[in-house]
Amino acid sequence: MSGQRIDRQTTRIAGLILLAVLLGGCVNATVDEMTYNEPVAGIGESSVVILGRRHKPDYDTEFDFIECIGDHIHSGDPSIEVINEIAFINQFYPWFEPRTAPLQPQTIDRLLQLPPVAARFDEMKLEYMIWIDGNTENTESTGSMSCGIGPGVAGCFGFGTWGTESEYEATIWDFTDKVEVGRVSAQTSGQNYMPAVVVPIPIIAPVQGTACDSLGDQLLEYLSAFH
Amino acid sequence: MLCFTLLAAGCSTKQVVVEGNFPKPLLDPLPITLGVIYPSAFAEHEFFDEAKGRAESDWLVKTGEAQVEFWDILFDGMFDEVVHIRDWETVQRRAPEIDGVLIPAIGDLQYTIPTHTNVKIYEIWMRYEFRLVDIAAIHQQEDGALSFNPDERLAAWPITAYGKTPTAFLQTDEEAVNLAAVVALRDAGAHFVTSFGATPDVAVWLDGIARREQDAARSSSDQAGDPQPVVDSAEASPTGGEPDSGETL
């Protein structure tokens, strides 16, 4: 009797694993774009910096997400020089800290009144400053899993699932004219699964990675002459 | 054994010695020779929070070394010359050049971790008390320690700083608290740089220095070649070198 119950439970878990494998990796993505004054011939020898917003109280835009977008743009068009975010923030300390970072392109003029800041910007030949605001969060989770340990035996049994949502907006500032020249946003969501029959197997939806690719593609299209 | 380990983990003290790489500020240094005294409570600052329940841990956060390292880099970039005042001999020897002495103190430090708040953010908040005094206000006590009379200060102002870091995969509580503390230190520096000249008493002091330098430049151009008398402000002070009942540093 109890053997039959275990068989039925195992079949149910196996069904869920199959379902999870079929659904796993499914990510919904929505991308919006509104850009002006596209550099049709590309940005030449100038450089671009991509910075995350970190002044909101409840979240920080992740450093690794900014790095992912920079890598995506540079790998799509190696002629575009993307300045490393942390190196940039350190070189301009304390003018790009959460407390002091400019929120409007017009306020850059105030920074340029400081001679050492203006000189460093000149050295960098910065053409575009791109601000990314947003983050990735896990949402509702359901399911249950129990794990046990005994002499020579350990394992887990059960099934868990949770959602992940990303929402990012990139604001492009033309550094020469000190104006905003575009906004690109990406919203992605997906469902993650964790079936466990002895060993838990996480099936993670690449929600943040998809947001990075979506936003990176749009920015590459804007900045590159070849896309 | 497992139960014992889990119990022990719940009761242990989590210790963080704050460490970070701090950048030099991008500024034109102010033409000022600044004396700096780091009181021992500042240079050895640590914060201890006792666990409120079995599920929590005690926390010991040592910020002193990082404070000194950070503020040294900031002051070096912000002022023409920085003189670290550690003894009375330095006060007497360098007094004529020093425009003012800055004495930082940490008034308060608070932290939160996700187990306290159920929010996936580690936070550190600090309140500094900065005091600027004339070198003549620094005295030596009988035991050799330096002190100053708080009433003789040129300026006193608070600086608040905030640092946060979100939870991250494979990041320990200690690493996250360290990161939040580094962000808070950087924020303190940004706040200090942007508010220094705007603090009313500091602005008066800066104006006084600028006026003195203009007068000196004018008089030296008027009487080119005449040597100017040097006044040792520490010696000129009526209480210089005398035991004092002021605040011990």
Written account of the structure:
The complex is a heterodimer of chains A (227) and B (249). Chain A has 227 residues and is α/β, with parallel strands linked by helices. Chain A is built from six helices and six strands; from the N terminus they run αββαβαααβββα. Chain A has helices at residues 2-23, 63-76, 85-91, 108-112, 115-124, 207-223, and strands at 27-35, 47-52, 81-83, 126-150, 153-174, 179-200. In chain A, α2 packs across α6. Chain A is elongated and about 75 Å long. Chain B has a single domain, classed as Lipoprotein like domain (Double Stranded RNA Binding Domain, 2-Layer Sandwich). The longest helix of chain B is centred in the C-terminal third of the chain and has 23 residues, at 173-195. Chain B has a five-stranded mixed β-sheet with strand order 5-2-6-7-10. Chain B has a three-stranded mixed β-sheet with strand order 1-4-3. Chain B has helices spanning 2-11, 40-43, 64-78, 88-94, 114-117, 173-195, 200-222, 233-236; strands at 13-17, 30-36, 46-49, 58-62, 79-84, 100-112, 121-133, 138-140, 146-148, 153-166, 247-248. Helix content of chain B is 36%, strand content 30%. Chain A binds chain B through residues 57-60, 62, 90-95, 97-100, 114-117, 120, 135, 149, and chain B through 2, 21, 23-28, 119, 121, 164-166, 183, 186-187, 189-191, 193-194.
